[in-house]
Amino acid sequence: MLEIKPIFNALLRSKVGAVLLLIQIAITTAIVSNAAFIIKDRLDYLNQPTGYEEENIFKFNVMTFGTDLDLIQQVELDEASIRALPGVVDAVQISAIPLSGGGSSTGFRLKPVPEKSKSINASYFETDEHGLNTLGVELIAGRNFNQDEVILNRDYSQFPKVALATKALLDELFPDEEGLGKVIYMGDQPLKIVGVIGMMKGPWLKLEERKDRSVILPMVDPGKLHQFLVRTEPGQRAHVMKQIEALMHDNYAKRVIQDLTGLDEKKADYVAEDRLMMRMLVVLISVLVLVTALGIFGLTLFNINKRTKQIGTRRALGARKSTIIQYFVVENGIICIAGLILGVCGAVLLGQQLMTHYSVPLLSNWYIATTALLVFAMSILAVIGPARRAANIAPSIATRTI
Amino acid sequence: MFSHYIDLGWRSFKRTPLVSLLMVLAIAVGIGITMTSLSVYHMMSMDPIPDKSDKLFAVQLQTIDEGQTWWSPDNLPYQLTYKDTESLLKSDLPYKRAALMATGFSVHLNSDKVKPFLEETRVTSRDAFSMFNLPFIHGDVWSQEQEDSAAPVTVISSSLSKKLFGSENGVGQTLYLDDLSVQVVGVIKDWQLHVKYYDLNNGSFNEPEQIFIPFSLIKAHEINTWGNTNGWKHEPVKVFNDKLQSEKFWLQFWVELNNETEKRAFEGYLANYIAEEKKTGRFTREQAEYKLRDVNEWISYWEVVNEDNKIMVALSFMFLAVCLANILGLLLAKFLRRAPEVGVRRALGASKRQVFFQHIVEVGMLGLFGGVIGIIVAQLGLFGIRQSLSYYDSLANMDISMLMTAPIIAILACIIAGLYPAWVVCNTTPATYLKTQ
């Protein structure tokens, strides 16, 4: 019914064109399935939940060059004046900014140094009792630390006794027990866990094992260069941000206010390379599919021109238009399926290469299957136009030039 | 003959404008995409200091205790401790050396003339300027006495001098770094680098600093690093001196060694230094470990060209292959259609070789057109990259070598694609086609 045998025989008479098409389809399938998989991987990374209302939070740096002040007092005063601004939910001086790519991390242990102990690396933030509310992350158990537990660090003679930690960190440290109320050690300093935080990403999103592990320490330790984090009411951020520099300079003049940026922008900067890679891949596969489609289109057109007489003859001998269309669709289908078989193998191989040499996860077979289907559909679409043109060749053409 | 072939090629182009245009576009898109990713790759991996890259060496010392691991590929720490840096700097060696640290200050003039601004600053020693090829426009580097006595002096870039003092020659002027007043002793040409090879800790493609101050100021004014500080054991740091005495890593060190003899001599010195330090209880490993890496080795050790770029380059070459397969198909179709004409030419005495070359020239022309349009496509692509990533400004560009490469790759690729079709068409038997005419 599908007349595969004669079509196949005809194909064997013009092998090169068919082989070229086959190669194109194979490479396209291999590239598109792998690229689509990487795109999906990056999209998941870019869109992962962070635990913050990124669009309502902003940060800025303060670099103090004056020396006639007490930095800790100044920080308290600055915090109070920012919190008093209309539209501000809370504001705090903090040692590191989440999602920014810059911060501190250390190993948290079950026993103090120098005893041997399990140690889990986690990022840490030093801030006061307003930190939790400014970050806006969810406390799922226990309590926030109190004002009297916050260490104002002037000479390193004191160290915090309590801390908040994310559930991800506590689950690592205490796999079988409840982490709340336990004591963990930062170096030789004991910290009692008084509160457990749910979702809260640290400064680094790239380090898979560290991004969810964070500790908040009740400590105010501003250097000459320190950072503030501010959370505003929805829609108020831009307005509040405009007032910050003037306000801070009114409070104390001999300093530079810098890097006044929204948390969403900070994150966008941090993930910029991944976003770029994703966009480049999207462009690459769109153009690739287009080029391959054009290739199929062009080759079919050429075949039709070459076989005008034969088509005319077939029509004259009684073949219906639909038979002619069918002929080209089936012919293309045969090449396409052969190309897809090769392409699927290519995709698996390419995926394995990428996984061995680079940090790309193993290509899921779903992507290959979906890509193969889409490429097949595309090739049918590309062939239908020229095939219909072939069907419209008048039978008289055949008789005219013989 | 060549110009005649070009003429024939041009005629053939005009005879089938649509197919020819399709081919040119296919090669243009293929070249455009390939050149976009290749240009970024090229800029990232390009030698930042070609005349000296094999003479400048980053120094690494294994100070970590046996059994402790580090995250570098060979377990060596990327940076040095203050103790080792100072010893290497002060030792009586005939080689140029530079210790480096990133920091930053509020820069101001203690007046209302210039609004205070934050500026990254490079703390370094005086050899750095000649080692890293930083030419002075005005003044000179601070003297050895000034370096030894921690004199408050600075070298700035010409654009910073303009910004602060309104003139390129800021020598003799005073500026403030936070509360420290420093005197400008030299102005250098702006340091332009696409890879910040001398300190890859905090972003490989960040701009180099514009202010330079003597290394001895670290101790004298307790200047903290803006770069990374990494430790491998618990060391309480309460006052600044604790940090100076600690085993924490926070400094970079480079040495200029002009030949293999000097390199071996310096390695000998390092081995000796480690043996001496061992007596004080440091360097506890059995085997003394140190490493000198030249600029290019250092860049690849840090994996400056990230894997995304490598994947993109690989994928875009595969894409180019698809475009070529496409062109090959179209060329075959186009040439075979012309077989009768070729038959006549052959019958009139053209040799196979002539016919072959005629077609290769035609294909080469397609490649040239495609390559030129491909450069435009690549410029668009690079523009898009620059838009998405600010610090790619100096990376997402085509330099002369890349501009030249584009048409060459295009022409070569097209000729490779055209070999088979040209071969087929020059092998047609004239008789077959003459018969049907």
Which secondary structure elements does this structure contain, and how are they paired or packed?
The complex is a heterodimer of chains A (402) and B (437).
Chain A lengths: L3 H10 L1 H32 L10 E8 L6 H13 L4 E7 L9 E6 L9 E9 L3 H5 L3 E4 L8 E2 L9 E5 H7 L9 E4 L2 E9 L16 E7 L4 E8 L4 H15 L3 E8 H8 L1 H35 L1 H9 L4 H37 L7 H27 L3 H7 L1
Parallel strand pairs in A: 4-10, 6-10, 7-9
Antiparallel strand pairs in A: 1-11, 1-12, 2-11, 3-4, 3-8, 5-9, 7-10, 8-9
Helix pairs in contact in A: 1-10, 2-8, 2-10, 2-11, 3-6, 8-11, 9-12, 10-11
Chain B lengths: L1 H14 L1 H29 L10 E6 L20 H9 L5 E13 L8 E8 L3 H4 L4 E4 L4 H5 L4 E5 H8 L8 E4 L2 E9 L22 E4 L2 H5 L18 H6 L6 E5 L3 H19 L11 E5 H7 L5 H31 L1 H9 L4 H37 L11 H27 L3 H7 L1
Short characterization:
The complex is a heterodimer of chains A (402) and B (437). Chain A has helices spanning 4-13, 15-46, 71-83, 131-135, 167-173, 237-251, 263-270, 272-306, 308-316, 321-357, 365-391, 395-401, and strands spanning 57-64, 88-94, 104-109, 119-127, 139-142, 151-152, 162-166, 183-186, 189-197, 214-220, 225-232, 255-262.
Question: What does this entry look like structurally?
Answer:
The complex is a heterodimer of chains A (402) and B (437). Chain A is of the alpha+beta class. Helix content of chain A is 51%, strand content 19%. Chain A is built from twelve helices and twelve strands. Chain A has helices at residues 4-13, 15-46, 71-83, 131-135, 167-173, 237-251, 263-270, 272-306, 308-316, 321-357, 365-391, 395-401; strands at 57-64, 88-94, 104-109, 119-127, 139-142, 151-152, 162-166, 183-186, 189-197, 214-220, 225-232, 255-262. The longest helix of chain A has 37 residues, at 321-357. Chain B has 437 residues and is of the alpha+beta class. In chain B, a hairpin with a 2-residue loop joins strand 6 and strand 7. In chain B, helix 11 packs parallel to helix 14 and helix 12 (339-347) crosses helix 15 (430-436). Chains A and B meet through helix 2, strand 1, strand 12 and helix 8 of A and helix 2, strand 2, helix 11 and helix 13 of B.
